[in-house]
Amino acid sequence: MKKVILFLAFISICSVGGFAQQRAQSSLDHVNTFNLNNSYAGLDSCIHIFGQRKQQWIGIDGAPVNTQLQGYLPLARTWGAGLEVANWNAGLLSATNVAGTIAKHLALGSNLTLSAALSLGYYQYSFGTEDVIAFDSDSYFDQSRASNGGLYGDLGFLLNTDRLEVGVALPRVFGTAPSFEIGSETNEFDVEGYLNAHASYRLTLNSNFDLTPMVIYRSIPSNGSIVDVRAGLMYKRALGVNLGFRTNNGLIAAVDYTWNDRIKLGYAYDAGMNQLNGISSGSHEFLLGFQLCKPRKEEESKPGKHFATGTVKDSETGETMQNVALTFENLNTSEKETVTTDKDGAYKLKVDETSNYKVTAQPLGYEPLSQTIAISDELDNTVTDLALTHQKIGVTGAVVDAATNTPLSDVSVMVKNDAESYSAITDAEGKFSVELENKRPGEMANYSLELSKPGYEPASESISKKIENYEELALAPSSGGAFQLTAKPKPVEKPMEEKPAEEPVKVKPAPKPVEAPREVIPLAPILFEFNSAQITELAKIRLERVVREMKANPDMEVLVESHTDCKGSEAANQVLSERRARATAKYIQSRITNPERVTWKGMGESKPVEACECADCTDEQQAKNRRTEFVILK
Questions:
Q1: Could you tell me which residues are beta bridge partners of residue 71?
Q2: Cα–Cα dist 629/621, whole Å
Q3: pLDDT at 565 over 90
């Protein structure tokens, strides 16, 4: 009697007179997308197998239990296939169905795919009359299990990019109706078709996190409309958390984890229908999945298909970097596409062989990357390895006159310790800045600060400060404020005694010393950005000539001399030339053995090759004076 009463209550609550819930309403369909829309079959190059079980409305006897096994895979370059076996139990009713799916995928553009799928299946419904209690003992009641079966079909359509997905599914778009003979009555049930639509968009927050909002709409004739609004946060494409709200139901939550890019585990919890509050403790769903992915050989080898490939490495350690988001911009069409490096630091993107691409990236803690890749139309793969440079810690400070507290310009600033040194010149506001090359957040900055300016007493200060982040590190004396320089006292001049005028003594000027001829390595100009000491890609190509010469001559010693033009102050030009000479020498040292064979010296504007008054120098003369020479010492 208890089973009959609970089953009738279940029928009343769920309105399943038309068998509307033929497919399980999953809260993990962002993991097993085939359960949401059969057009996902074969959309990627992976074989997927999923087992799921959903126990609805825990605490209510006879509540629905859904169990299903699904698998789908690519058949060829534009085809996919899937198979599903599912069982549904609710009180006295149960259903088992088996369906096969075929899907077709059409490329509408370089990043847009339209997919369509058809599923054909067979169902078997059973009504457990052996558990029904008849109240009229005079009537005959066949208490064997009544069952019936039939065919059904599902349709699915999907529009897909690498980030946006919009799909419409029509489960049970056609089917035959089962009927049951219970006593002297024949009961026939309709297999309802319904609408299932969804849309999602993946946002890349940084190299580790993706955020995917999602909306799902279901319209079932006998049950009305149901809307899911969800948002999923994914960490390193492995650990996902999904939260949302389902109308006529309440809160839904899910967590999933992908291990080793193959095994998927998922759990979801539904708070329960509003009508069941206080009766049920909600619904629980479990998922176990397996996927095996590999590149499609026919896709890669087909003529006219080109790929940009390579790895991303840390420029200092040489280690490969995973989960780096790279944005490729087609320089002909301005279209952009983002790919993420895999666990081996590798990336791969299908590209247009008639275009060049600009690739950009900015992982946390690294300098922005911007590089142009020329696509080869003679090869299937254009291989370009990318290197990311650690972001440098900026150090700032200010210097003032100790007596007047006014800013001091053209103060020479040296920030150094036993391992490294950095120089700078204060600007018109008395401010200076340098970049620490080898420091990271969390480390200590232990340096001595030396200040000097003609007419002032030199000053020094010890600096010890923890680096909290990549923001600029402000330096200040222990007393706070700005660093101070004290002006030297002016010497007291004695009155000069008048002397009788004497005939001037004519002195023959000494002859200028003749410099010994210097041997230099002939090289095209090493160019720098304005007021910058950063080695450009073009400069690296030209510096390889010096590297080759030194590798071919293991005993060769070279002095790197960097010269500036006469624009700006003499002190600023001297500091700039030292920075450029040091950067050039360090690049060559990193490419050869015995780096002590390379020394450097900043010459400032002291030795121009074009002797002209600065105001009268032409742009061509200034350009000749801006040069870096490689003097062969040995």
A1: 49, 83
A2: 17
A3: no
Write down the residue that tokens 């160019």 correspond to. Answer: 527
Per-residue model confidence (pLDDT) at position 197: 93
Tokens of 190: 């309709």
d(CA 605, CA 618): 15
Would strands 386-388 and 393-401 be described as parallel, antiparallel, or unpaired?
unpaired
Chain center to CA of 384:
18
Fill in the DSSP letter of residue 207: S
**Ordered alpha helix ranges (H), 41-80:** none
* CA–CA separation, 477 and 484 (whole Å): 9
Name residue 367's amino acid. E
Please choose, from the candidates 208, 468, 235, the residue with its C-alpha nearest in 3D space to the C-alpha of residue 363: 208
Contacts of residue 35, defined as CB under 8 A and 6 or more positions apart, other chains included, come to 23, 24, 26, 28, 29, 50, 52, 68, 70
Domains of the chain and any CATH numbers: 2-293 (2.40.160.40), 312-377 (2.60.40), 393-485 (2.60.40.1120), 537-632 (3.30.1330.60)
Contact 142, 127 (CB under 8 A): no
- Mean pLDDT (the chain) is 81
Name the residue with tokens 């700039």: 576
Give the amino acid at 611. A
Q: Furthest-apart CA pair in the chain: how many Å?
A: 157
Specify the pLDDT at position 365: 80
| DSSP assignment string, 534-589 | PPPHHHHHHHHHHHHHHHH-TT--EEEEEE--S-S-HHHHHHHHHHHHHHHHHHHH
Give, in order, the Cα–Cα distances in Å from 561 to each of 32, 341, 519, 521, 574. 64, 41, 13, 12, 12
| Total residue length of the chain | 634
Give the C-alpha separation, 26 to 242, whole Å: 13
Name 221's Cβ contacts closer than 8 Å, sequence gap at least 6. 18, 20, 192, 194
Q: Which residue has the higher pLDDT, 372 or 304?
A: 372
Question: pLDDT per residue over 337-352, tens digit each?
Answer: 999 999 899 999 988 8
Contact 330, 355 (CB under 8 A): yes
What are the distances in angstroms from CA 623 to CA 20, 528, 564? 80, 11, 9
Give CA–CA dist 14/436, Å, rounded: 67
- Placement of tokens 């506001």 in the chain: 429
Q: Calculate helix-pair angle for 570-591, 537-552, nearest 10 degrees.
A: 60
DSSP string, 113-130: EEEEEEEEEEEEEEE-GG
Per residue in 216-261, pLDDT tens? Answer: 998 877 677 889 999 999 998 899 999 999 887 788 999 999 998 8
For 183-282, where are the E strands, in sequence order?
A: 185-188, 195-201, 203-204, 209-220, 224-235, 239-246, 250-259, 263-270
More confident: 544 or 148: 544
506 burial (CB, 10 Å; 0-12 / 13-18 / 19+) is exposed
Nearest of 165, 75, 157 to residue 112 by alpha carbon: 165
DSSP 315-366: TTT--B--S-EEEEEETTT--EEEEE--TTSEEEEEE-TT-EEEEEE--TTB
